[in-house]
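Holo prediction — NDP.
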Amino acid sequence: MTHLASSKRYEDMIYRRCGKSGLLLPAVSLGLWHNFGGVDDYGRMKEILLRAFDLGVTHFDLANNYGPPPGSAESNLKHVLQSELNAYRDELIISTKAGYLMWDGPYGEWGSRKYLLASLDQSLKRMGLDYVDIFYSHRPDPDTPLEETMGALHTAVQQGKALYAGISNYTAEQSIRAIEILEKLGTPCLIHQPRYNMFDRWVEQDLLRVLKDRGVGCIPFSPLAQGLLSSRYLKGIPEDSRMGGKSIFLRKDALDAHTLVKIKALNDMAEQRGQSLAQMALAWILRQQEITSVLIGASSVAQLEDNLNSLKHLEFSRDELAYIDNILMN
Ligand code: NDP
């Protein structure tokens, strides 16, 4: 049976304009980097995706290589879209990216026109889609002229295979150049996807200001530092967690004694605000108007719901912000 979406799905979600574009994104978007691969439980991922949609999460973020194995998150999404959400394509914003290693040989990664356009064709096939809403250059390529990489994004949009173009992991300086090239080509840069969370604040230096000045949206990834900024590791390392062995991207040494002290102090503060730590960590990012959406991951419906409840309390007093800065700087 195909999914009958909740009639209340747009009641509680906040939608924010992406830069100066016409596109609104949900304040919380769902990424399929982990927990949606061929090695993961299909029933559970379907449940998470459908619950997300029912709660107003209209944006799912992918990349060519998400899995494992690479590509399988896109294939799994195809099954859920075709079997459950077929009627709702026009209510969904689906993004994918190319930049990291995807196939053998010199055309399987980085930023050449050859790689980006071939990869987008592969992604569309895997997802069973005619177009994606956003196509990203996943990382800057030091050896390919930026004009070529941005030119490939522009071509994807002109071909109707992507509606908008985005960049990810570009520095502030690289972003300025990319935004200017895209503007000249006539395909404005819609959005930037940088890592940003309480433990990694590099975007605050220049990038957020650059994006705001140029009217480009911002969707931070790993807003929970892959789960560190939640209750997940307060009492040890659960076996079924990312750090417990589900992923090579969150190593045990990320949870040293010093970091654990900070997590506990932040958790105490979140409790005082009447929030979970995950909710406070997301609200802390979303309190800034130049942020369009936070791009979360989730391994269960409970985590997803916990995270969406962050929207109920996005305000921070000056004292609270100073207190958080103090915890983070110690
Ligand atoms: P998060 O920082 O949100 O981490 C998600 C993980 O945190 C979950 O898998 C879960 O871990 C844990 N978690 C989430 N919510 C809770 C909660 N309420 N309570 C306790 N634990 C919780 O984001 P990700 O690192 O997953 O990144 C999100 C998305 O960003 C990706 O799916 C991808 O789309 C994008 N991304 C983009 C990158 C880029 O280069 N452009 C790079 C990385 C990510 P567990 O699985 O252990 O339960």
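READOUT: The two ends are 53 Å apart (CA to CA).
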